[in-house]
Amino acid sequence: DQQVKQNSPSLSVQEGRISILNCDYTNSMFDYFLWYKKYPAEGPTFLISISSIKDKNEDGRFTVFLNKSAKHLSLHIVPSQPGDSAVYFCAASGPAYGGSQGNLIFGKGTKLSVKP
Amino acid sequence: DGGITQSPKYLFRKEGQNVTLSCEQNLNHDAMYWYRQDPGQGLRLIYYSQIVNDFQKGDIAEGYSVSREKKESFPLTVTSAQKNPTAFYLCASNRQVNNYGYTFGSGTRLTVV
């Protein structure tokens, strides 16, 4: 049973426009959420995170929004650039996740393509 | 530069053979992790270690083994008991448990032939 879901396997946007990547989770005990970016044949790199005590965190062109009541978070990239083309993974963690305390649970990823 | 080094980048193994994937970090991180990525799948946790000489099973530990004899090293052995070993393997580390700033290696692509 997937606890972190990214329902869109792919997303295509035009350069300069906004990219919105979505993520849903089922475990209400998750208290920390992260986004990672991954290029082919490379390891993921940390992009941005948000604690459950916040509803928004911004870092340059990247903003993450958290809606706890809906168990939903989203990553906004504005403006999108061709170099943003990559797979984006949503991840969550929390104290009550089985025996793997503190470990990250990843979604399946969304492949973003930004067209010039 | 500090980081995590995984080697080799590509690895081929015959069915029935064990193979060991290397992961070394010079970040002085306490915790280290092994994840597996399959096409269309997220990253699934195989094993993790919070301190030297201690490690815990993740979600898909069957067919894998690890050791943590040194803080810097966390090798993963894919045994012949692993039914579907062909995958992309990622090693990660972080400064301490519950610090979520994972640093990932560049991965090892294992193919069983």
Keywords:
heterodimer, A: 116 residues, mainly beta, 6-stranded mixed β-sheet, B: 113 residues, 7-stranded mixed β-sheet, 4-stranded antiparallel β-sheet, 11 strands, 0% helix
Provide structural commentary.
The complex is a heterodimer of chains A (116) and B (113). Chain A is mostly beta strands and 116 residues long. Chain A is 0% helix and 52% strand. Chain A contains no helices and 11 strands. In chain A, strands 2, 4, 5, 9, 10 and 11 form a 6-stranded mixed beta sheet that branches. In chain A, strands 1-3-8-7-6 form a 5-stranded antiparallel beta sheet, with no helix packed on it. Chain A is globular. Chain B has 113 residues and is mostly beta strands. In chain B, 0% of the residues lie in helices and 50% in strands. Chain B has strands at 4-7, 10-13, 19-25, 31-37, 43-51, 54-57, 64-66, 76-78, 87-94, 103-104, 108-112. In chain B, strands 2, 4, 5, 6, 9, 10 and 11 form a 7-stranded mixed beta sheet that branches. Chain B has a 4-stranded antiparallel beta sheet with strand order 1-3-8-7, with no helix packed on it. In chain B, strand 4 and strand 5 (43-51) form a beta hairpin. Chain B is globular and about 35 Å long. The mean pLDDT of chain B is 90.
